Every structure is written in C-alpha cells, then in structure tokens.
C-alpha cells in the first residue's frame, strides 16, 4: 500500500492548512461502524490527546461534526444564558463575529475594541471589569483577520484578580497547537477550536474544551433550548466513548476522527514536544517576519505589539506596498504554486494579505 | 499513484455504509483553500448534482458540516416557528427523535404512531389532517430502526388534497439515492439527508433541500434565533459557490465536499441511472428478504406491509429466531468479517438485528 499526495500548490493561508500524508491517509480509512470495537477506542484516545494540546487534565473535550463557527453557538447556548453580560475583547473580524453570535442568543455584549493591528490594554480591561459584573469575557487568541496575538495568560490573571466569578472563554481556532496555552494553569474555563488549523486536519470538526466552571454553569441551569448543540446530549456521548461503551446521539464523522487521531498522535507523542512545537512556530514566524521587514514591507500588527510578543506565531498579515494591491501579488505567487490568503478585514481587505505558517 | 483500501470487515449496517475507493481517495485530497478556483466549482457542482438525486430542479440545496441529526434543528428553526402545529408520522426511533427536536424549539407536535413494524394508514392521516390546520407534516421515508418504508408519494398527495397549505417535510437520511423520490413532482417542500447512507460518503455532512414554499416560509418571518443554523446565512453562501464567487461564513468541510462530489458523479452521471439504481436496490433487497424467509426468519416489518411495498429496499430488520439473541448471531458474523447492526428500537433492541444493503 502506497500513499502520497498528488503535486499541488503549497497552501500557505491561515487555515485550512497543509495536511500531512499520514493524516490524509487516515481520512481515507475504510468505512467502520461508529459503535464498533475498532472505532470506539480511536475516538476515546482523540479526547484524551485533545486535553494534552491545551494542557487541561480537568477539561471535558467535546468533538462534534461542524465548523469552528459552531463553537460560538455552543458556548452561547450551553455556558451562557440570555441576559448574561459578556465582555468581548475584539482584535479583528472574529471578535466581531463572536459578538454577533452571542447577541443572536440574547446575551448582552460589550465590546472592547482595539484599533486595527492593536489589542485592548490591561488598564482598559481592568476598568471595564470594575464597571460591571460580567458573566464571561471572551478573548480571541489569534484573530485570523489581523494576526494579532492576545496575551491570554495576562488577561486571565487580571480577570481572576479583579472579577474572579467571570468565566474566561478563549477562541483558539487559529492558535491551538500553534501558540502556547495552558488551560488549567492559566485559569481558562472554555477553549474552542476547529480541526483545520494548528491541529493539522481537514476541516469539519468543531472542538470545545469545557472546564469545571463551564460544566457547572451548564448543570446549574435549565437545559439549553437546542437539540443538536446541547451539551447535555453530547457530554454523555463523549464520556461513553472514553469509557469504551458508546451511546448514540448523531453519527460521529468517523473518517475525520481517524484523521484527527493521526494528527494528535504526532502532536502529543511525536518526536517534537508541544513546547518544542511552539518554539518552532516562533522561529518560523520570526523568519517570515524578518524577511517581510527586510523587504521593507509593513505588517498589519502595530510596531508596538510586534515588539511585545503581540504578533501571531502561526500567521503573518502583510500590508501591500504603496501603489500595489492583491491583483499585483497573489496571482504571481499562485504562478509559483504558493497560495496566500487575501485580506479579510472589512475596509482593509484590499490593503493586506495573509501568510499562514502553522502546522507541519 | 495507487490507492486501494486495506482489507477490512464488510460493513453491512444501515449507515455508515461501505465507501467506494474513488470516494475515499477524494476524501484524502490535499488541502485546498475553501475559496480557491480549484475548490469553488467542485462545491458548485455538488449542489447541482444534489438537486438531481431528489429530482428537484426547483430546490435550494444546503450543505453544512454537521450530522444528519442537525437537519431536524435546521428545519425546526428555519421553516417552522414556535407554536406551529406539526403532525409527525412515526414509524420508529427516528420519528420520535424528530418529534423531540421539534418540541425543543417550541413546536406543537402531534404524533401519529404506528405499531412496531407498521405505518400510519391513509384514513388515520386524513382524519388528523381534517381535525386541525397543521403547518407541516413530517414523514421518515425509511426509519432506520425498523426498516419501514413510508409511501411518500401517497401521503404527499393526500396532504395536498386535504390540507394544501401544510408543508410536506421528508426525513430522507436513510433513503436518498436508495429509494425512489421525486421532490418536485410529488409536491415535497423539504428533504433532509446526510452523507453516509445512500449517498455513499463518509459521515460529516448535513444536507437539506429546501423547496420554494420552505424558502417562502423562511423569508416571510423574522430571522431565526440561531447563528450557525441560520439559512439566511447559509443560502447566500450556497448561491455564491454555485455562482463561482464564494463568500465566507464558516469554513466548508473541503475534503468531505470532494468525496461527495466523487460519489454524486457516480450516482448522477455513472453508467447506472438513478432509476436503475433504485431498481438494483429493490432487487438486492428482494434477494436478502427471500433468503431471510427461506431461513424461516421473520422481519420486523409486518407481513401486511411487506406485501405492499412497505419494507425498505435499503435495509432489512430481521427478528432473531426464538431462543436466540444478539450474542448468538452478531459475533459469528463478525468472525466471518461481516458487520451487521444491532437493534435500535427501545424495548425491541434485543429482538432483532439490521442488515444494510444500500449503495455501491
């Protein structure tokens, strides 16, 4: 049996990312019954390995067919309730979208928005936290639209100091397994992510890690008014797969679970430790950013943030040189079989492009 | 480049089903950008071919990462509203589950439930329809828990005659591309299905076809209170991919879309026409059922229904002989590398097993 990818353009967008051959091969696994003795331990091990990717022995991982977007709905419905006050730190498109999703479910949202390329500072965050009792704060670790990296550790410490009852929710779609995170040690209550970024898988899985306080929030309330997105249905399914005695709610996406299993094995048990993986991302990122600077190009992330570890190590947002735009650069790279991402941020999308450099 | 599946047990459960080599190979496609010129037409063609599988030139297909279960939520939220009266024809577990999902969203459900192995008759259905103005009726074409096949054409005709404003909603998860259906000609307003049954793909895609009256129901109301499941967000995305100018809401599950594309090509353009495909399913089913009878075994579907095309052509539910149970039969088949499905119906699950015979 041989397997190798066909020749293809090198995909360097901030997700989906290039997928390793062994992961693609796992995605082509022959059909298995979702409750069979072959499949059940594979799903169980996926859950165990996911805890390691965010350093959270205490968390309940929830893996459901869906896109990353669905994580916002799950958190809005299961951890929060209509009328809850939530502070959304916004560093780009994805902070705004998270806020939209929360509002859809009747959550009272206040956004603390940084200028493009910046992030809200500790004094602003402290003042907000002191102004009102927020049920939760949300932080996008890497906003894929700007490449701004939030300082999750510092923000979470601040929250625990000023407003310890406030739940800390992290959107880690563009960062898990690329940017350092320690869910338990840093006091994070929920991390949501997806399969197609740092986890190095094809897209199609929504992944959420729920810490003890998030589970408590769910358990202390009336069951959420949703069928497919209800954690009261999914958590028993996850526990049943981990215990080896599967119960049915919806058919799990078996092939993607095989693919994620393969990818997580490399991430958590491969020759490169997670710490070394983070370091390699930092080094690769530094090379890209040094090159960008040496070409005289600017980044979307502010100079100030760049100097204080505020630029993502998983991607880079590069401003086009004066007088040039997407039409001048992206097709030329495509001719060289390299695909970059166009700008995503409203009003700015013609002013920059995005390079992904996460994963294998 | 060679690709073939490893040796594995023959999967004969009523979904997930065995997946053809070329479909698995497509599922291992190298990563592509979800808005790239390679991928966009693939997704567009998937939508066009899906219309053919249910013979519905007028329908809007919606394909979203999720399981079949999610289709119930989508219909509850987008086509219906809280307080709507809905008649659920129940021929097994999946009718009950659809009713549960509807109730979660405040829909007023009446269930017309047949005895196990039967289906509600036309007189009962007519009486119900005359007793109250129902906003919609739901019918499971094949209930995977019992193998009962509903007569969608006859029920839909009856509805259009007695209560023409009532929307006709079909759960086709276990039947699309295996059992005959003509969405437009039979006057069906919504069909929901999933990728892993008759469509011959790995699981992970929720597929809904919305007819003009369903779209009208959505458009004539306040936008549904959901973010990820809101068709007002997804329909423009679907239209944009079909038009070749993609817009972003959530990352589409690119590899599964490639796999579905390959499978749909075989179904809609392969050497076997859809009509011939239905015929082959009927013939294969007849062989299985004749063998079951010649062994002196009974089916869960009533004798009466068996005699009137009321048993599924995609699967068979077989009662264990007196004195024997799951422990006597299923492990012996597994030793011969054939996997059947255990019983699914509450109170009956130790009394029968299920053989899937849909797809390639």
From TrEMBL, chains A, B:
<dbReference type="InterPro" id="IPR015424">
    <property type="entry name" value="PyrdxlP-dep_Trfase"/>
</dbReference>
<dbReference type="GO" id="GO:0008453">
    <property type="term" value="F:alanine-glyoxylate transaminase activity"/>
</dbReference>
<keyword id="KW-0808">Transferase</keyword>
<protein>
    <recommendedName>
        <fullName>alanine--glyoxylate transaminase</fullName>
        <ecNumber>2.6.1.44</ecNumber>
    </recommendedName>
</protein>
<dbReference type="GO" id="GO:0019265">
    <property type="term" value="P:glycine biosynthetic process, by transamination of glyoxylate"/>
</dbReference>
<feature type="modified residue" description="N6-(pyridoxal phosphate)lysine">
    <location>
        <position position="197"/>
    </location>
</feature>
<feature type="domain" description="Aminotransferase class V">
    <location>
        <begin position="24"/>
        <end position="339"/>
    </location>
</feature>
<dbReference type="InterPro" id="IPR015421">
    <property type="entry name" value="PyrdxlP-dep_Trfase_major"/>
</dbReference>
<feature type="binding site">
    <location>
        <position position="354"/>
    </location>
    <ligand>
        <name>substrate</name>
    </ligand>
</feature>
<dbReference type="InterPro" id="IPR024169">
    <property type="entry name" value="SP_NH2Trfase/AEP_transaminase"/>
</dbReference>
<keyword id="KW-0032">Aminotransferase</keyword>
<dbReference type="GO" id="GO:0004760">
    <property type="term" value="F:L-serine-pyruvate transaminase activity"/>
</dbReference>
<dbReference type="GO" id="GO:0005777">
    <property type="term" value="C:peroxisome"/>
</dbReference>
<dbReference type="InterPro" id="IPR015422">
    <property type="entry name" value="PyrdxlP-dep_Trfase_small"/>
</dbReference>
<dbReference type="InterPro" id="IPR000192">
    <property type="entry name" value="Aminotrans_V_dom"/>
</dbReference>
<comment type="similarity">
    <text>Belongs to the class-V pyridoxal-phosphate-dependent aminotransferase family.</text>
</comment>
<dbReference type="Pfam" id="PF00266">
    <property type="entry name" value="Aminotran_5"/>
</dbReference>
<keyword id="KW-0663">Pyridoxal phosphate</keyword>
